[in-house]
Design brief:
By secondary structure, the chain is α/β, with parallel strands linked by helices. Helix content is 34%, strand content 25%. It has a nine-stranded mixed sheet, with helices on one face. The chain has a six-stranded parallel sheet with strand order 3-2-1-4-5-6, with helices on both faces. Strand 11 and strand 12 form a beta hairpin. It is globular and about 65 Å long.
Length: 333
């Protein structure tokens, strides 16, 4: 994959669902990345400059001339399986926004399509690429807090969802759990390992929506640790912590403005000042994805992680229906 001068040519990328907020973040990341070129956009509602297509069918017919090598899927969740399978069948590697799929059946079908195509299929998971989370992972791996015992997470901010497709169950497949649950699941998994079971309870609704606008999740990790996650589109965040991890040797505070290690022996806390950087996180995952497109390296977020995030959300919705802990069985891949 080189140009006429012997240097590597940029990976030609298409964005599907190009009119959304997240799509703009990926456009910005591509603009800042020398190794990528935005070659096409696909969206039924808003035309953009350059090669734009109103449907995936139009894009498929034009792909021979476009020569796209990769795609970023940022369309509503209910469209993901069909779009991802068609893009993989074209020979494109795919970076798929969360939620990866709205059911484990769809997720497994998408991953099977990736196996058949020998192309990469990756879940977009920005928090794994942020300095506070990476610092926390290093401290945990080094045994600085001992084995994780208790975990807490909050993703909460008041957002008017009345006119947004994320609150339309026919498009999104659910409410705040479907929207922010994949991030909650993947962050917990990245810090404390696989989750074994989950129970869910919705909060009193604030917004008049057809879906839940707030939910509390309790879960058990395979290690025996326990965790909670509070997700809300209506409540302000009560603190600056994204997550807290406690062990017998200390506590980790993963904050939006950095990370802090508080030893249990009373010694001085340690700090990592780099905070959450959305632009940097998108850029870092894009750079890794481009290397995968070139057949190099490994993905930070693998197929097991993608499937686990879907299974977590699916199990939490089942818990809402049945009012009990639901076991999450991770399938071998």
């Amino acid at each position: 994959m080189t140009d006429g001068f012997g240097t590597e040519a940029p990976v030609r990328v298409a964005i599907v669902g190009s009119s959304g907020r997240i799509a703009q973040d990926w456009k910005n990341a591509i603009d800042a990345e020398n190794g990528a070129k935005l070659a096409a956009t696909i969206d039924p509602t808003t035309a953009t400059s350059g090669a734009h297509f109103a449907s995936i069918e139009e894009f498929v017919h034009a792909q021979g001339a476009l020569r796209c090598q990769a795609a970023i899927v940022a369309s509503p969740p209910k469209t993901h399986r069909d779009l991802v399978e068609r893009l993989l069948d074209l020979g494109l590697s795919v970076l798929c926004e969360k939620p990866f799929a709205t059911s484990t059946d769809d997720a497994e079908a998408m991953l099977a399509a990736a196996d058949r195509s020998n192309c990469s299929l990756v879940l977009a998971s920005k928090f794994r690429f942020t300095p506070p989370v990476q610092a926390a992972q290093t401290w945990i791996a080094d045994g600085r807090i001992g084995e994780p015992i208790a975990y807490e997470n909050v993703f909460s901010a008041p957002i008017d969802m009345a006119e947004r497709w994320n609150a339309d169950p026919e498009i999104a497949g659910g409410g705040v759990l479907q929207d922010n649950g994949p991030h909650a699941a993947d962050l917990a998994r990245a810090l404390c390992g696989p989750i074994a079971s989950v129970v869910a309870s919705t909060t009193r609704p604030v917004q008049k929506l057809r879906v839940e606008d707030g939910i509390r999740l309790m879960f058990r990790f395979e290690s025996g640790a326990v965790g909670t996650s509070d997700l809300s589109w209506s409540l302000p965040a009560a603190r600056q912590d994204m997550a807290i991890v406690r062990g017998h040797r200390g506590t980790l505070r993963i904050r939006w403005d950095g990370a802090e290690l508080i030893p249990a022996d009373g010694s001085a806390p340690q700090h990592r000042a780099e905070g959450y950087d959305k632009r940097g996180a998108f850029g870092a995952q894009l750079s890794e994805f481009l290397q995968l497109c070139r057949g190099r390296g490994q993905s930070t977020v693998d197929s097991k992680d993608a499937l686990a995030a879907v299974a977590f959300v699916e199990s939490a919705y089942r818990s809402l229906q049945e009012g009990r802990f639901i076991d999450i069985v991770e399938k071998e891949r």
